[in-house]
Amino acid sequence: MQEKLVIFDSNSILHRTFHALPPLTTRKGERTEAIYGFFLLFFKIIREINPKFLCACFDFPAKTFRHKEFKAYKITRPPTPNELKEQIKKTKEALKVFKIPYFEKEGYEADDIITTIAIKTKGIPKIVVSGDQDLFQIVNQETKIYFLQRGIKNTSFIDEKKVAEKFGGLLPNQIPDFKALCGDPSDNIPGVKGIGEKTAIELIKKFGSLEGIYQNLDKIQPKLKELLIKEKESALFSKMLIKTKEDVPIDFDLKDCQFEKYQKEEVKEFFEMLEFKSLIKRLEELGKESKNENLKLW
User: Fold this and answer.
1) In CATH, which superfamily holds the domain spanning 168-242?
2) What does 4-42 look like in DSSP terms, one character per residue?
């Protein structure tokens, strides 16, 4: 059996569960639906994938280096509701009880930390649980995305083949080049005005990368060449914003991520406090279930 590492893109998951599930409230009036959804997914992952290692990554609750470089970065996104902020804090507490390490770093997003961990664990098969397509850029033979397409029940595994199908035959590591040309409205990334997805794909397939395109401007038709020259600064700047960092300074040791270090009674008490009766039942079944050996990812 392969020793797999599962990495939770926690903010992405919690935002998804917060909006997908109806409000849940404890008798004390504490909102819990995002936490409940997170651990519903957590137990599903354990059952389906049976990982040896687990960790979680969070966005640091402050501006990142991208915001400093580009004031309008993600400006179109609404602020995180207070009800969700509290549930993010409580999820971190739950992970501590489960003895699962989580990582966050001032100035960086969870995507950057996930990318850094993926590089630090070369040779280990990895599954990143996320609803964020920005992470498709790190997909390779070792790293796949357990992608939340809609809510938390509609999921799919994203590998290199799926990325190529979605992005017109491009490689995962070419996604930053693609978005640098055609932009990304969800993050307010400008790209190059006048270049759409089809043209971006054609250019990248022909010249390999954004840098390759600018090294071969003389081979591009005049009107398109003029656009690229005019928007060169925007294109290169957009790629810098989109490409995830590979060297976030975190203290990571794979041994700390080994699952099953937790005390079942401690987790049960925490779930009782949150009134998660159905999750307590799933906790009791953990380890007793037959492992799903049919899910072949590699």
Assistant:
1) 5' to 3' exonuclease, C-terminal subdomain (1.10.150.20)
2) -EEEEEHHHHHHHHHHHSPP-B-TT--B-HHHHHHHHHH
